[in-house]
Write a structure and sequence with these properties.
single chain, alpha/beta, Spore Coat Polysaccharide Biosynthesis Protein SpsA, Chain A, two-stranded antiparallel ribbon, globular, binds 1-O-phosphono-alpha-D-glucopyranose
Length: about 300
């Protein structure tokens, strides 16, 4: 008999897929994982781990591929560098160096074949076990001033099943995302997801609600992924496995969406990556004032058509 009894186990695990080839950023990503590309002066992956920790996710698992040594090194101590900074008495930089290793002590598992996001998430099964868990995609940065994950965990605890993050996008852009068919609930920011399509063809999108890279999933998703045939791009898509869960009242379902209206930066696209850096640099207390003044002059010169050698 269908039951709506939610699983009341706390969400403590974060899974961060980081095995992508980063082809959009070649040649920068030839020998460096794309997750290590800096947003101002911090690698993108560090923002994501900070977000997980801010939502009380204490156990971080990264799904890595080849070339991921740099990721492991970044979250490890670097004694040589620390010693040098201690000798110089450079406490500020020492603190910056230690930040990432004090943040988390991630676990790592390798995705041997790049078979898609669903397959990457499946690699987390032995580590996750039988409790709901979060998935954070590194290409989406969520501004820490607009917390999303803790709200999603709250919604998962209330309804059980699985929860995805949604954002309304320009309909012309929906083909770049997983897209959700939705029904309203009594909460303004929560919807019931009735169907999902990965990167719909023009005219086939059920809405303009795009999946952004945050999920809180019931472990039943693993069985669903195992039964999911390759989909868009010949890859095992997480969206397709979740589509299966949208029909269920338990055993992984129902699927709810939290509609996010805060600040999100897409760092997977080169143009958006540059915009994210400019925005975040402008907001920094140390860099912002000078950088903003330069940016104003630069844009004025651009508008006036005067070539700028600034
Ligand atoms: C992945 C998911 C897609 C989601 C997107 C969010 O796609 O498959 O459903 O909308 O992340 O960033 P990717 O951008 O990795 O191709």
């Amino acid at each position: 008999m269908p039951s709506r009894t939610p699983r009341l186990r706390a969400v403590t695990k974060a899974v961060i897929p980081a095995a992508g080839l980063g082809t959009r950023f070649l040649p920068a990503t030839k020998a460096t994982p794309k997750e290590m590309l800096p947003i101002v002066d911090k690698p993108a992956i560090q923002y994501v781990v900070e977000e997980a920790r801010a939502a009380n996710l204490t156990d971080v698992l990264m799904i890595t591929g080849r070339n991921k040594r740099a990721l492991e090194d970044h979250f490890d101590r670097n004694y040589e560098l620390e010693e040098t900074l201690i000798r110089k008495g450079d406490d500020a930089r020492l603190a910056r160096v230690r930040e990432s290793s004090e943040l988390a002590s991630p676990h790592y598992v390798r995705q041997r074949d790049p078979k898609g996001l669903g397959h990457a998430v499946l690699c987390a099964e032995p580590h996750v076990g039988d409790q709901p868990f979060a998935v954070l995609l590194g290409d989406d940065l969520i501004d820490p001033r607009d917390p999303l994950l803790s709200r999603m965990i709250e919604v998962q605890e209330r309804f059980g099943g699985s929860v995805i993050a949604l954002m309304e996008v320009d309909p012309a852009q929906i083909h770049l995302y997983g897209c959700a068919a939705i029904e309203a609930t009594a909460d303004e920011d929560v919807v019931r997801v009735t169907g999902l399509v990965e990167k719909p063809e023009p005219g086939e999108a059920p809405s303009a609600y795009a999946i952004i890279g945050r999920y809180v999933l019931d472990p039943a998703v693993f069985e669903a992924i195992k039964k999911t045939p390759p989909g868009r791009g010949g890859e095992i898509q997480l969206t397709d496995a979740l589509q299966e869960l949208t029909h269920r009242e338990n055993d992984g379902g129902p699927v709810h969406g939290v509609v996010f209206t805060g600040r999100r930066y897409d760092t997977g696209d080169r143009g958006d990556y540059l915009r994210a850096i400019v925005r975040l640099a402008c907001e920094r207390d140390d860099l912002g004032p000078d950088f903003r003044a330069w940016l104003r002059d630069f844009t004025t010169a651009e508008l006036n058509g005067s070539p700028s050698d600034m």
